[in-house]
Amino acid sequence: MYAAVVRSFDSGPKYEKVEAPAPSREHEALVDVLAAGLHLRVRAQANGSHYTSTDELPLIPGIDGVGLLPDGKLVYFVATDNALGSFADQTLIDIRRAVPLPADADPVLIAAAMNPAMSSWVTLRRRVQAKPGFKVLILGATGNSGQMAVQIAKLMGASQIIAAGRNPERLRSLTQHGADVVISLTGDPGAAARNLGEASAEVDIVLDYLWGEPATLAMLPILTRRSDRSRLLTWIQIGSMAGADAAIPSAALRSANFQIIGSGQGSVTPAGYLAEFPALIHAIAEGQLTANPIVYPLSQIEQVWKTPPGNQQRVVFVPQAETDCRPFKGR
Fold it and tell me: What is the DSSP string of 40-54?
């Protein structure tokens, strides 16, 4: 078979022939991969920068996908926590981390939407109990996950959605997906923070995909403008596109009912994620959530990998079965 293989964290994956893996453990199954998304999390996996990285090389990247089990059943799966990912013609999965899909489900759409939608969906259902009528600020709303977060907040009954980001074209388009207010983060960071404070003073939840300086600058302007500082504001750290570290103003923690939590692998259990998959899959399959996938054959992995993420649609790779392989020694 063919796979995308990373042999150095300093360079992207290469399209190589490898030997198909064979199940050797309980609950393990070999699936034919139909579609796998190129998520930001996959790029971090492939360069070793993600906090879950084990530094194991070589590795086949890809954290999830849609595939066919040996019995022909269509499933969405989360890749196992080893060097065999979903960017391959076939991969090994733990069937306990897979959920069945409707027979008529679009593998490309599911592969494109599940990962970027999962962060806000799971956050709003598992890390905080978002009640209908909640107000939310989405920092980093022009990224793929942020765009999905706007749709999901609307679907879950938000009464006000404030979307902040840098890409002007994407920012304008978010009003069509449910954003009530859009705020540009380009230009002077201090001015952007003041704008956030004025627009977002009464939100209940912040979904933060940026962290770094934008988070540091925005906290006090938002908190100091709240009409009732004793009303809880939950700031949820999900991504770190603007920096892995943020200086938290001490006054923010003392002067208001303010809590900062995170959402991701570890803060939500694998069982928690799996429990949310069926409802999220249903929302995607029924058209309640939309993605913008663009499909490439896996053979073009090297060219596509060099495309800046900000200029991409949601890239989905479609593997092509091949024979005459050489062993992949990643386990």
Answer: HHHHHHHHT-STT--
Name the helix (H) or strand (E) containing 236.
strand 233-237
CA distance 27 to 40: 28
Q: Is 119 helix (H, G, I), strand (E, B) or coil?
A: helix
Structure tokens at 229: 């500082």
Quick check: 117 and 139 in contact, CB under 8 A? no
Which neighbouring-strand residues pair with 68? Answer: 32, 74
Cα 272 from Cα 7, distance rounded (Å): 33
Instruction: Estimate to the nearest angstrom the gap between the alpha carbon of 111 and the chain centroid.
Output: 11
**Residues β-bridged to residue 317:** 36, 296
Cα 17 → chain centroid: 29
Round to the nearest angstrom and report the end-to-end CA distance of the chain: 17
CA distance 214 to 192: 9
How far apart CA 139 and CA 114 sit, in angstroms, is: 20
- Sheet containing strand 181-184, edge to edge, reads 181-184, 160-165, 135-139, 205-208, 233-237, 258-262
Residues 6+ apart with CB under 8 A from 16: 2, 3, 4, 5, 326, 328
- In tens, the pLDDT along 103-130 reads 889 999 999 999 999 999 999 999 998 9
DSSP letters of 276-289?
HHHHHHHHHHTTSS
Q: DSSP class of residue 62?
A: -
pLDDT of 199-246, one tens digit each?
Answer: 999 999 999 999 999 999 999 999 999 999 999 999 999 999 899 999
Phi/psi of residue 81, each to 5°?
A: -85, 60
Q: Distance of alpha carbon 6 from its chain centroid, rounded?
A: 21
Tokens of 83: 């060097």
d(CA 169, CA 150): 15
> What is the per-residue burial (b if ≥16 Cβ within 10 Å, else e) of 234-250?
bbbbbbbbbeeebeeee
